[in-house]
Amino acid sequence: MAQPEQVPGTRQRELLSEESFSLLKVYAYYRITLATVFSAMFLTHLAPNILGKENPGLFSYTIGIYTVITFITLIRLYSSRFTPSHQHMFLVCLVDITAMTLLMHSSGGISSGLGLLLFITISASSIILPKQIATLTAALATIAVIAESIFNLMYATASMQSIMTAGLLGILLFSTSQLFLYLTKRMREAAEEAELQTLRRQHLQQLNELIVQRMRTGIIVLAPNGAIRLINESAARLLEIPLTMEQNSEFDFSFAEIPSLYECLQNWRGNPRARISPIKIRDTGPELQLSFAGLEDDKNADIIVFVEDTRDVAQQAQQLKLASLGHLTASIAHEVRNPLGAISHAAQLLAESDTIDKHDHRLTEIIQNHSLRVNQIIENVLQLSRRKNPAPETLNLKLFLNKFVSNYLQAHSESLNISIDVEPADITITADPSQLEQVLNNLSDNGLYFSQKKTGEATLLLKGYIDHSLDTPCLDIIDDGPGIPNNDIAKVFEPFFTTSPKGTGLGLYLARELCEANQARLDYHFSEQRKSCFQISFAHPDKALKTA
């Protein structure tokens, strides 16, 4: 039950806590039971020598009024408009002390034993009320008992022994009050500490769950049979596993449903120390590295699986590779470009000579063409070594493509047809804009060239969308060319591989290197319409690393 709210006009009252309110209800039931039992015993004369033996009229009026008050109090406790406070509880105790004193007096005083019922009232007040008010309640009860004994001594046949008994009862009432105050304080401190510990554990649990869910590394906990017990967002995204499940139940999914995952699990079980080879869930998806570890030494224990996107490792390797390439290309620039320049210059001078025939003139053209080709290879390699670390920015894909196409068309005088299709329009990506523009320049040049070669018209489609299986943005560069033969697809991104006599074989290799440096992936496949398509899969905007 929720703690009652304060109503206007009760700001100065200290309302009872939820636990105290519940105890007050229990005490209200006790009062009704006590009043009902005393009324029944008095009316049926079950204890005529005790109940009301000295003054039956006083006992009858007291128990009647007390019964009515207890029923009214219980009814008010269940009223939605009633908000009990410490003052209400003190008033209840005061009524009980008065009633018990009058009942005791009408039944022969302290010797009737009815004064012992005050222990329950004092105990309840010590549990529910603050220390000062509870002590005041015990003091009033003691004063009432002693006053009743003095009254009997003065106006009735009571002896001095009743005064001693009343004093002893008062001492016991005070002792009971202090004992219950101490016990209540200790129990409340223990309850508060337990509640604080519970809140801390809940906070830590929520924090751990948040950390696990937001980790870039995928984490999965498997049952011995391969069923998934726990999976975070990264693992579900990388492995294309749905994150839906019923509350307090296991995922309705098993590693056995994906052959490549189940094969990795079986390989680890066969040799836990062997390194698992990277896998791909699909051809155009990221390359994933799986690592397994048993949570216990028992064979039937759960298994924890770490899923990592190798693009992060590839980016680090890329930096090391560029550093090594820088030293290599510096040597190439000095050792190759100077002799190459001399050869090209000599061929030009030889071509200008009047003494060579047309056949020798053709040979000088071949020398110059191949010199230019070698020089272009050196330029591309130098471009790799000179490239700075990416400076990623959050970009709106559609706006970026519109600006790129506008600049690209201004730089080319020929008739080009480049279409843009981005759905939804608010797709955002994280990449270095200058490096991404360099990649698109290379892919657009290739696509437009091969489209015109096949159809006579230079056409290209830039299609942006969200890959819902991975929840990542993608960009397809689709052309109408003949496409890359299936035998060459696996080698198309290798350095110096080319099928064109005029190509250097470094364009696509450089494009993929730039994509990996930006935590994106460049793949080639045929679209649903069987058109040639280069696909750039960007990292998730919220999980991409920010590079300084």
Structure explained in plain terms:
The chain is of the alpha+beta class. The two termini are 54 Å apart. A hairpin with an 8-residue loop joins β4 (287-294) and β5 (303-309). A five-stranded antiparallel sheet has the order 2-1-5-4-3. Strands 7-9-10-12-11 form a five-stranded mixed sheet. A two-stranded antiparallel ribbon has the order 6-8. Mean pLDDT is 81; it is low at 1-12 and 245-249. Helices cover 55% and strands 13% of the residues.
What's this, in brief?
With 548 residues, the protein is α+β, with helices and mostly antiparallel strands. The chain contains 15 helices and 12 strands. Strand 11 (521-526) and strand 12 form a beta hairpin.
State the helix count: 15
Order of helices and strands: HHHHHHEEHHEEEHHHEHEEHEEHHEE
The coarse silhouette is: rod-shaped
Beta content comes to: 5-15%
Please give a handful of descriptors for the protein shown.
single chain, 548 residues, alpha+beta, Beta-Lactamase, five-stranded mixed β-sheet, 15 helices, 12 strands, 13% strand, disordered N terminus
Q: Topology of this protein?
A:
Blueprint: H1 18-43, H2 56-77, H3 86-106, H4 118-128, H5 131-155, H6 160-214, E1 218-222, E2 228-231, H7 233-239, H8 259-270, E3 279-280, E4 287-294, E5 303-309, H9 310-335, H10 337-351, H11 358-386, E6 393-396, H12 397-411, E7 417-422, E8 428-431, H13 433-455, E9 459-467, E10 472-479, H14 486-489, H15 507-517, E11 521-526, E12 532-537
Parallel strand pairs: 7-9
Antiparallel strand pairs: 1-2, 1-5, 3-4, 4-5, 6-8, 9-10, 10-12, 11-12
Helix pairs in contact: 1-2, 2-3, 3-4, 3-5, 4-5, 4-6, 5-6, 9-11, 10-11, 13-15
